């Protein structure tokens, strides 16, 4: 056994790599992480992703640096002779500190994630009884929007605007939106990527997700749960527009769809349509 | 096999072998069973009841289900599984003629054999075949995804390919490592001559093969549109091909349950004298923790599918919300099986890596107890995390922090395994053989799989990554990067002992580097695609994702090519440049390498007595702690 200070070498290399990589992760990669700053919840997810990546970087570097060093330093230099290494069967203090450090990291991550989740719901579907309800921006009230998924499109219903049902979606800026996501047939998932919203649409279930919009933007809606043959085609785009423009748009929609609205079933949290035909 | 049927007399030879019970009769009986179930019975009992989803003309789920059931029963009877119980029922004395491998030559691999070494090789061939089918499905999926529009397959064909790829890999590869390696190694490593239940051992294999064939038949019934998760009520409205999905996973589930049961009993009760728990080879610990998961998780899958089958045939509505069922019920039942399932895939890989690294670092396994605790801990925790698949599904919102914590806790025992690998390398004399390269690649791949798993387990982050390509990349890094790399490590390592020839080292290294680079080049970009918002299982995608998708598709072809390098290596080393393997080419101190090659029919002349674990490296003089073995033939 050689007496080179391997442990010190690995530790120094690891520290050096962390000093280089962690700032890069936090300041260069971090701001580019998804899903961007389209909403308050989306920005929260970016922060969350940055923290996770900043914690994960030293861990990954620890393993990689150690492995690279070990494979180089402890390689067999005389492969033609089979020689054994020293019979080390463990090291109690290394095992103890590994356990302590990983436990602390895990508890920190779980605690941090829970705090962030419970603060504003992070845009995720929370089921019919949400526990993380963000407060709306000052001087505004929450706008309920029902997302109705069916094979294979999303429609949107605005209970505070006469229950009008639209095929496109426009949302007012700087407003707390409450999405009530439900389905008419199978499980879908409402994913508004730039808003950082994802909520499964289950038939007979009202799945609530909150999002606080920021300035105007275009967002993409895709179905994120396999829902049958044309799942890949179940997408559209929506926009966040200034409040006045939204008011004009929804008024116009109410007029345009007035004949159809009369024939819709009354607004409800869930709907039970007759079963569908099989085969598609 | 025929030896059971034709008691002690001389074994048949030549073409007369075909007259006994074998795979050919199995297939004939199986086809007959299908026609009886589907045509003779099923066609006549359909039509009653009210369907919640009215059926297409000609879709008769009852007939198809009956066809599958009787087909499998016929196949198994044709193989000879009925002989022993029927004889007992008729009052004949039990046949003592279970000298399993009296028949020599290749033919015994196509009959019912109760020799654990034969079953292991049957598994190797069968699993290899279905792994190739699943891999080809992946190639076709990537072909479709080269362009954002539909250009090769239709939407239904594409989803069927996705579902078949997923089901094949998740279903058949549960036995990918345990089938060939645990069947072959566990009896040897714990010092016994057979598994606890040899007939069940054979039964699990043939049932699994029947399941694989059933899955392939889905293409004759319109495929299925649900992916391998088979979510309800989408499944209830699916075409007749979904019946094949149910039949497939029912066979796999039953096979897994029995296999796990067999392994648990074998490892607990059949250890040789001196093989205490603290001397058990670490691969056996990995097998044991996997087997416990199989035993406890797979019945849940069978229950979930049985309920789905009832919805489709006898018109219950267990999963149909409009009629009083629940769409969450299936998700919960499925993932209660499904999350242990992914550890059923990963844990044998842990076992192989931990078993092989000491051999090639020439050191004892570092932190043996920690490694055992790691694998048992992963297994235990895996039953408490399943709802992390449902974070945004509308599950009880209060439960999400708990599942976030329990999921992240799994990184502790996984970290133990990493620490043990790293500790074993410390001050070792590392030899970069092909199996060792695959083990090191496992460390690299599983590291990224684990790190990305932290993002999926964190609810705020999961809101974006759930159901996206990010998740896809994550589980391919853990399952393909973990299981398949460990699988190849095991193949390169144990083939000299199992088959008596050595795989070419140079071709092996070519295979390794092509596969390793192509693997990372294929799956690393998928993290980016998921982060940018590409959902899973879509046949079309946004135009701006095309460059990355093209890159991934081409990398995937290279990954497929690396499998051809492996096949070429097998043919080359077996046919053209065959060099007989040394008895112990890796200078391992584990017991299986102390036996002669090929390993004799009954493994040991005398049951060995162990006085140490199999890792006495670096102890001079060399064999001081080696197991006291009395190998048959004594040529070791």
Describe the structure.
The complex is a heterodimer of chains A (280) and B (636). By secondary structure, chain A is α+β, with helices and mostly antiparallel strands. Chain A has two domains: 6-74 and 97-123; 143-263, Immunoglobulin-like (Sandwich). In chain A, the strands form two sheets. Chain A has a five-stranded mixed β-sheet. Chain A has a five-stranded mixed β-sheet with strand order 4-10-9-6-7, covered by helices on one side. In chain A, helix 1 (6-29) runs antiparallel to helix 2 (40-73). In chain A, strand 1 and strand 2 (153-158) form a beta hairpin. Chain A has helices at residues 6-29, 40-73, 92-120, 243-256, 258-263, and strands at 143-150, 153-158, 164-166, 169-172, 176-183, 188-192, 197-201, 207-212, 217-223, 235-241. Chain A contains five helices and ten strands. Chain A is 38% helix and 21% strand. Chain B has 636 residues and is an all-alpha fold. Chain B has one domain (116-576): Cytochrome C Oxidase, Chain A, CATH 1.20.210.10. In chain B, 61% of the residues lie in helices and 0% in strands. Chain B is built from 19 helices and no strands. In chain B, helix 11 packs parallel to helix 14. The model of chain B is unreliable at 1-9, 97-101 and 622-636 (pLDDT under 50).
Overall structural class of chain A, as computed from helix and strand content, comes to alpha+beta
Strand content of chain A: 15-25%
Please identify, by name, the CATH architecture of the largest domain in chain A: Sandwich
Q: Looking at CATH, which topology of chain B would you report?
A: Cytochrome C Oxidase, Chain A
The number of domains of chain A: 2
Quaternary state, please?
heterodimer
Could you name the CATH class of chain B? Mainly Alpha
Count of helix runs of chain B: 19
């Amino acid at each position: 056994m050689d007496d080179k200070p391997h442990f010190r070498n690995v530790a120094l290399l690891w520290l050096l790599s962390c000093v280089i990589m962690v700032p890069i992760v936090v300041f260069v990669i971090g701001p580019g992480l998804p899903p961007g700053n389209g909403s308050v919840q989306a920005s929260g997810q970016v922060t969350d992703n940055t923290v996770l990546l900043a914690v994960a970087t030293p861990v990954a570097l620890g393993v990689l640096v150690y492995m690279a060093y070990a494979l180089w330093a402890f390689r067999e230099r005389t492969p033609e002779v089979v020689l054994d290494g020293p019979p080390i069967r463990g090291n109690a203090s290394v095992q103890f500190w590994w356990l302590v450090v990983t436990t602390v990291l895990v508890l920190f991550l779980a605690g941090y994630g829970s705090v962030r989740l419970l603060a504003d719901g992070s845009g995720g579907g929370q089921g019919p009884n949400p526990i993380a309800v963000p407060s709306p921006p000052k001087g505004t009230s929450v706008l309920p929007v029902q997302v109705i998924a069916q094979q294979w499109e999303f429609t949107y219903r605005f209970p505070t605007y006469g229950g009008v049902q639209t095929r496109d979606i426009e949302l007012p800026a700087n407003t707390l939106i409450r999405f009530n996501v439900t389905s008419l047939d199978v499980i879908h998932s409402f994913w508004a990527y730039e808003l950082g919203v994802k909520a499964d649409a289950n038939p007979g279930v009202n799945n609530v997700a909150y999002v606080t919009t920021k300035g105007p933007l275009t967002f993409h809606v895709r179905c994120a749960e396999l829902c049958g043959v044309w799942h890949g085609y179940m997408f559209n785009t929506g926009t966040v527009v200034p409040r006045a423009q939204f008011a004009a748009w929804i008024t116009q929609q109410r007029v345009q769809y007035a004949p159809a609205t009369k024939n819709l079933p009354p607004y409800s949290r869930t709907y039970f349509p007759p079963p569908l035909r099989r085969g598609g | 096999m025929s030896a059971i049927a034709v008691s002690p007399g001389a074994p048949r030879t030549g073409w007369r072998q075909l007259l006994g019970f074998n795979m050919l009769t199995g297939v004939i009986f199986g086809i007959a069973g299908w026609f009886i179930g589907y045509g003779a019975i099923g066609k006549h009992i359909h039509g009653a009841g009210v369907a919640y989803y009215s059926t297409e003309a000609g879709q008769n789920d009852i007939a198809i289900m009956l066809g599958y059931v009787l087909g499998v029963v016929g196949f198994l009877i044709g193989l000879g599984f009925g002989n022993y119980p029927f004889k007992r029922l008729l009052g004949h004395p039990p046949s003592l003629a279970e000298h399993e491998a009296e028949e020599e030559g290749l033919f015994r691999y196509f009959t019912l054999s109760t020799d654990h070494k034969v079953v292991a090789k049957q598994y190797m061939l069968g699993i290899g075949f279905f792994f190739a089918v699943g891999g080809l499905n992946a190639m076709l999926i990537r072909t479709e995804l080269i362009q954002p529009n539909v250009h090769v397959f239709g939407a239904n064909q594409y989803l069927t390919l996705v579902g078949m790829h997923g089901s094949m890999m998740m279903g058949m590869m549960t036995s990918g490592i345990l089938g060939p390696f645990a069947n072959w190694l566990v009896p040897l490593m714990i010092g016994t001559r057979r598994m606890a239940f040899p007939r069940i051992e054979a039964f699990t294999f043939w049932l699994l093969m029947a399941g694989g064939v059933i899955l392939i038949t889905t293409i004759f019934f319109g495929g299925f549109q649900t992916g391998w998760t088979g979510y309800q009520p989408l499944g209830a409205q699916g075409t007749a091909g979904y019946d094949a999905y149910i039949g497939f996973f029912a066979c796999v589930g039953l096979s897994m349950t029995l296999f796990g049961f067999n392994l648990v009993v074998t490892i607990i009760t059949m250890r040789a004298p001196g093989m205490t728990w603290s001397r058990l080879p670490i691969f056996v610990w990995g097998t044991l923790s996997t087997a416990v998961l199989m035993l406890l998780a797979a019945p849940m899958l069978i229950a979930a599918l049985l309920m789905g089958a009832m919805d489709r045939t006898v018109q219950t509505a267990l999963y149909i919300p409009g009629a009083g069922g629940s769409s969450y019920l299936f998700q919960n039942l499925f993932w209660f099986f499904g999350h242990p399932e992914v550890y059923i895939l990963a844990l044998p890989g842990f076992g192989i890596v931990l078993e092989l690294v000491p051999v090639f670092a020439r050191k004892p396994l570092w932190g043996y107890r920690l490694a055992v605790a790691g694998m048992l801990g992963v297994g235990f925790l895996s039953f408490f995390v399943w709802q992390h698949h449902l974070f945004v599904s509308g599950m009880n919102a209060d439960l999400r922090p708990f599942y976030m914590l329990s999921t992240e806790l799994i990184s502790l025992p996984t970290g133990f395994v990493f620490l043990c690998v790293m500790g074993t390398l410390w001050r070792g004399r590392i030899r970069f053989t092909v199996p060792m390269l695959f083990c090191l690649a496992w460390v690299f791949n599983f590291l990224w799989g684990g790190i990305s798993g932290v993002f999926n387990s964190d609810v705020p982050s999961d809101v974006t990554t759930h159901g996206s390509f990010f998740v896809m990349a994550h589980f391919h890094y853990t399952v393909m990067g973990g299981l398949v790399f460990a699988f190849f490590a095991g193949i390169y390592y144990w083939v000299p002992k199992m088959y008596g020839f050595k795989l070419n080292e140079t071709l092996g290294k070519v295979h390794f580097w092509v596969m390793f680079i192509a693997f990372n080049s294929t799956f690393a970009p998928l993290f980016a695609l998921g982060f940018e918002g590409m959902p899973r299982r879509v046949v079309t995608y946004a135009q701006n994702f095309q460059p990355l998708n093209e890159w991934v598709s081409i990398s995937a072809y290279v990954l497929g090519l690396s499998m051809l390098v492996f096949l070429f290596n097998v043919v080359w080393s077996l046919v053209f440049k065959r060099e007989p393997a040394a008895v112990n080419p890796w200078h391992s101190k584990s017991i299986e390498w102390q036996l002669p090659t090929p390993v004799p029919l009954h493994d040991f002349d005398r049951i060995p007595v162990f006085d140490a674990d199999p890792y006495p490296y670096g102890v001079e003089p060399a064999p001081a702690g080696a197991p006291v073995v009395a190998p048959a033939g004594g040529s070791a």
